[in-house]
Amino acid sequence: MSRIAVIGAGAVGCYYGARLAEAGHEVHxxxxxxxxxxAESGLHIESVDGDIDLDAPAIARTSREIGAADWxxxxxxxxxxxEARDLIAPCVDERTSILALMNGLGIEDQLASWxxxxxxxxxxxxTCINRGEAGRIHHIDYGPVTIAHLGDxxxxxxxxxxxxxDAKVEVPTASSxxxxxxxxxxxxxxxxxxxxxxxxxxxxxxMGDGELRAAADGLMRELCAAGNADLEEHGSSARLDxxxxxxxxxxxxxxxxxxxxxxxxxxxxxxxxxxxxxxxAPLRRASxxxxxxxxxxxxxxxxxxxxxxxx
Amino acid sequence: MSRIAVIGAGAVGCYYGARLAEAGHEVHxxxxxxxxxxAESGLHIESVDGDIDLDAPAIARTSREIGAADWxxxxxxxxxxxEARDLIAPCVDERTSILALMNGLGIEDQLASWxxxxxxxxxxxxTCINRGEAGRIHHIDYGPVTIAHLGDxxxxxxxxxxxxxDAKVEVPTASSxxxxxxxxxxxxxxxxxxxxxxxxxxxxxxMGDGELRAAADGLMRELCAAGNADLEEHGSSARLDxxxxxxxxxxxxxxxxxxxxxxxxxxxxxxxxxxxxxxxAPLRRASxxxxxxxxxxxxxxxxxxxxxxxx
Lengths: 311, 311
Description:
alpha/beta; N-(1-d-carboxylethyl)-l-norvaline Dehydrogenase, domain 2; 13 helices; 2 domains; homodimer
């Protein structure tokens, strides 16, 4: 059993942390705004894969209280990346590995620069989770977390996945972290983006409109092209198969309930959206690589402006 | 001097009708919601090209009261096209010509099918006009109306422009109505569209954002490609020069005050937007012609969804 620190206890951090606690790991949650509510009433997950009730989870107000852990799961919102270093550092010693369960491109490189020598992993969740009232999480659909390793070391990938062996979470592995990140963007960019520009629509509305569905398709193909150029420049032999990515994303989204992506909820509730991680970073990278991404560029400009008025 | 009926007395109809009245024409305005206010207080234009105060303009509640005219200026919102035939018919006899001072593609063909034998013209305004309180119009910037003729008859174009000879309105002429319509869309699609998807931003915000400006550029190029295919299919030798169109539109928009396009105001005020005329019609036409217009398609899907929730 591992000692695990969950930094950033939003819906994603709470859900997967609770699944690891359920599997017997010693899981510590760093809480801020919800500390008092969870101290009072515990942490409760309503899940299509079985509810979890942690009546007295191990919670802390500071990372120092948690101290060094075998695994630090960083599930901060990408907009809080500035705080990540200080929040993570007290939980890191020579035994520690870090798993970034976040959206975005370049997160792992950033973590590696802050914590040299610490193994860095990515966890790419494909799941529908929303936060309810404090301490309550609704897990609506899906749930796999793809495990990847910065360095793409096969043994390390296995070690990263092994932590989840007894947890009720599917953990497929990705041999290329970079490919997995671009593939994840192939969902987040169109569906987080077009649900926001639609004024706060759900994923089924995007899927049900011929032009928006075609735009999602086109965005995925642009991202695959940029991702493949990025992989090539990194000397990786991994490649994204655009047809396969589009088919897989569309199939999964078509069977998904009418879903409210996190960015769309942030938009409707006037909170800061993960604009840099999901939109600006891939656009910058595509531009550096000389890959034309006109749909991504337009969508990024649109979201940027909407974020400005919301912020 | 001509007897002129202005059907659809929004900002555009009132402004240009007042300019023609100022030049000495006998101008009759068909008014509905603003009839009482204008009967009481007149029609007042605050204009960068000189104010106009019509204290007792010729106004009517029905087209029948106006009767046959030399010119019918149809300045209805494109969303009211269903009513256009009944509103125009009482003003048409064998002496009448019709000028469509409206947004959209295919408007003139529609009018020709309703009024066979009647000369049909297009007036393509490039102007910044907003409605104030009832009977008050604010003309902020620009003002030319490009005159074109359905049939592209040179003598007719000259006759159409001659009506405006003494009016304080520049009337350049277009040798190809179809080219002029597509060229006008090159402004309306990006600027009416992107100001709406921005949540109600002004044109200067689009111009000031690198990605949105690039999207406007890309949209114009898609529209030029579709327009040129349309011209070719119609056997016209006219062509749009995309570079020239982009440069001209960008230059004009850059020097424009922070402008609120009509569609953006409609969106913010929860009124029906001219979605079919400005977005759906060119998208359908491009699709029929087999011209790829991914940015137009995405923007159309976005506006369509926003229009649904507004409507």
